[in-house]
Amino acid sequence: MFNATVRRAVARAGRPVAVPKRNLSLHEYRSAQILKDYGIAVPRGAASTTAEGAEKIAKDLGLEDMVIKAQVLAGGRGKGTFDSGLKGGVKLISSPYEAKMYAEQMLGHKLITKQTGAAGKEVTAVYVVEREFVRREAYLAVLMDRATQGPVIVASSQGGMDIEGVAKETPDAIHSFKVDIHEGVTDELALKVANSLGFSAKAVPEAAETVKKLYKVFKEKDATQIEINPLSETVENKVLAMDAKLGFDDNASFRQEEVWGWRDFTQEDPDEVEASKSNLNFIKLDGNIGCLVNGAGLAMATMDIIKLYGGDPANFLDCGGGATAKAIEKAFELITSESKVTAIFVNIFGGIVRCDNIAKGLIATTQNMSLNIPIVVRLQGTNLEEAQRLISESGLKIFSFTDLDEAAQKVCQLSKVVQMARDIDVNVSFELPL
Ligand code: GDP
Ligand code: MN
């Protein structure tokens, strides 16, 4: 919820930034296993975290034509490049020796694709599968759609590598089918979708079955996204899910223990993982004002007002109703771990969490950490007077306000001063205490 709201605020602010979604993505080999459990045909294969393991899988498959696929939580692997120089995260191979050789060049290396950004993602496993001989490659997805507030099936005959390109150049080649959540996918709807995939008539019945099964996975596993690209028709007119990207709703994690047990933390932002351990929501943006807030609504308002006064948030930490001294310290640690941060803005509305407790937490934290960037605090709500007294008596250089406009102006101004000083390599001291 917090992340979705902030993402909307970011969108409104009119600047594209990569804000992570708070939902779970699984590796392809895990996703493929789920599909298989539901009777959907996937290529035979297995995953390994070692080169020897990959060699053994290839040996056991005993085939002449296989594919080795780097497992990272991002699409576009086929056209990706490794930091080792190797081109392509999906390679055709014809021997166990080759499986080992490519696994060595993939494992522990970063794969950079269209979706990973320049930093890339580290490959912790490879998936070795039988190679399929395909007639057609289609695209099929089941998604939760904001506009219709329900599931939607997206299908295209132009599947394969680059669905974003298809959407841009030939949007007519992409068909959407709204699913009535009460009715589910009827035979009629399944057939309509199957007919839009561009498969031969022989493959249509199996494609329709696949559509129904995918919707079953979507519903029963609390998925928010199932994307099969490509869904292929083989030369024998079989329908195969040759790649799978499944995403799951974090609000349902409590009833999907098995799926959440497959979470791969190595693919997530380490700071965000760290924050979630302390029950903090953390999202990173590309400005330089670190923000500590409570609640998504306040985060949005904070975003807007910072922008209004010409500032740019570096990140948002939401401590919700649990702004204990310990949580505040953790939050400050995370906020200041980003060297680009030039000022901290604390905007908290004391309701369940009282202002004086926040003030105590802030004082303890600033005393413990040797911060040399300015802190601007705007508190409102329960026990405000006590909080103000504590801050002013602490002798710490915390800029305290009750008015949001004044506080936002101050933090934007101070952050600019610090940035300018950094640019010309001058040390402006905001060391605490005074
Ligand atoms: P992505 O680039 O991350 O989407 O990775 P994919 O798993 O979709 O693989 C990229 C592309 O490789 C696919 O779109 C296929 O065109 C091709 N590919 C992968 N496995 C096979 C296979 O077994 N047979 C054939 N013919 N093509 C394959
Ligand atoms: Mn794909």
TrEMBL record:
Signal peptide: none annotated. Its EC number is 6.2.1.5. Pfam families: ATP-grasp_2, Ligase_CoA. This is Succinate--CoA ligase [ADP-forming] subunit beta, mitochondrial. Keywords: ATP-binding, Ligase, Magnesium, Metal-binding, Mitochondrion, Nucleotide-binding, Transit peptide, Tricarboxylic acid cycle. Residues 292-411 form the ATP-citrate synthase/succinyl-CoA ligase C-terminal domain. One of its GO terms (cellular component) is succinate-CoA ligase complex. Pathway: Carbohydrate metabolism; tricarboxylic acid cycle; succinate from succinyl-CoA (ligase route): step 1/1. The keyword Nucleotide-binding applies. It is an enzyme of class 6 (ligase). The lineage of its organism: Eukaryota, Fungi, Dikarya, Ascomycota, Saccharomycotina. Heterodimer of an alpha and a beta subunit. The beta subunit determines specificity for GTP. Belongs to the succinate/malate CoA ligase beta subunit family. Binds 1 Mg(2+) ion per subunit. Its cofactor is Mg(2+). It is found in: Mitochondrion. Coiled coil: none annotated.
